[in-house]
Amino acid sequence: MSGESLTKTLSKPALLMTESKQDYQALQASLEHEIMPRSFVESMYVADIAALTWEILRLRRCKSGIINNAFDKALQNLLRSYFDFNYIAAQDLARRWFADPTAKEVAELLRRVRLDEFAIEAEAVRLSSSALELIDRMLSAYESRRNKALRSIEVYRVGFAKTVRESSDRVLQEIRVPKLGYRANKVSA
Amino acid sequence: MASERQTEANRRNAGSSAGPRSVAGKKRAAHNAYRHGLSLSLGSSAAVARQVDKLSRKIAGNAKSEIVLRYARDAAKAELELERIRKVKVALVERVLVFGALGPTVRFGPVTKALRHLKLVIAGKAMLGEPIDPLATLPSEEPERSAEAMRRAVPDLIRLDRYEGRAVRRRDHAIKRTINNRLSK
After folding, report:
1. CB B51 within 8 A of CB B77
2. Nearest CA to B175 among B86, B71, B83?
3. What confidence score (pLDDT) does residue A1 get?
4. Burial level of A48, CB count in 10 A (0-12/13-18/19+)?
């Protein structure tokens, strides 16, 4: 079963406006090439696996993006502790540091209190932890669904082969094979 | 299982309830219709019926058995529901990308929190500032913009996940039944 007939039956994949349709189609094509679906149901599962893989990739990208976005706030929090909780001074210095890549003031301040730039990353992770926790929950749900879809293809193939064999066995049992007349005559004679 | 007396007591208690009283409870209950909307099966429009028919015929293959066709129909309905839920999820994230938030932002929650902030402003440790525009605080560059939109939408997305899981289970169950009944008739 080609992917074309499946996409005619099902509508377009759910993509964000910032995502590439070509990339999605390439992912689906590579999965079809690997799994080689043999029926419509198998194609449906491959499409499902493609959708889930795409969502997993999207969430993984977002995780690092969320931490990156929290860097500004994280640095402000660290500096607020240094400046005796002066919000305005901390905000000014943090903005200056992010705007000017050559600025070394923050690194020096951190060194003075025996910290390094990793402290900013740690604070960014801490600030994003509630969102990251929810995303991790979604990720594990998608990963388990993707594994289940892969198993479903296997079960479908085995189940289909089994039903065909059982049906074929039944047909063979039901049909009465005519006795060999020649041999029967020979025995009675 | 609850006894006759317990059931009667539950009914009596439920009758005297006037719904949630706390702000959080009311807010949670406000989402009920939205959530129930997704748990409803697909609409009965002619277009949806045609889509279900088309998909179920493909799932059933060349099977003619009524039972197989019924299970194939259930699988088709679940598959289309799954598709609908995924589209809803994407639409929510896109709404955040366009407007910056899914609803109006609450600057201060309880009065105590507002007072605490006001004290900090008076002490010169915080700024009063303008009301925050959710769109203005959304990063302008990709992929940071999408990541922030996802962060803001994730509490709503996780609620939809339950419906997605349910649709997947219904579809898989129906497909399994389709296989078991296929060619056995």
Report:
1. no
2. B71
3. 47
4. buried
Q: How far apart are CA A83 and CA A118, in angstroms?
A: 19
Nearest CB among B127, B158, B172 relative to A88 is that of B127
Decide: helix, strand or coil at residue A83: coil
Asked whether the ipTM of the predicted complex exceeds the cut of 0.85, the reply is: no
Q: Could you tell me if residue A85 is left (phi over 0), alpha (psi between -120 and 50 degrees) or otherwise beta?
A: left
Compute CA distances B48 → A14, B35, B84, B135, B157, whole Å. 18, 21, 12, 36, 25
Long-range Cβ pairs for the range B5-13 (8 Å, 24+): none
What is the rounded average pLDDT of the residues B89-96? 92
Query: What local confidence, expressed as pLDDT, does residue B34 receive?
Result: 54
* pLDDT tens-digit series, residues A56-65: 999 999 998 9
Residue type, A2: S
Q: What residues of A are in contact with residue B58 (Cβ under 8 Å)?
A: 9, 40
How close, in Å, is residue A187 to chain B by CA atoms? 40
CA atoms B21, B24, B27, B28: torsion sign: negative
Interchain contact, A61 vs B148, CB within 8 Å: no
**Helix A21-35 with A40-69: angle, nearest 10 deg:** 130
How far is the CA of B163 from the CAs of B84, B88, B169, in angstroms?
10, 11, 10
With an 8 Å Cβ cutoff, is A87 touching chain B? yes
What is the Cα–Cα distance from A55 to A90, expressed in whole angstroms?
Answer: 37
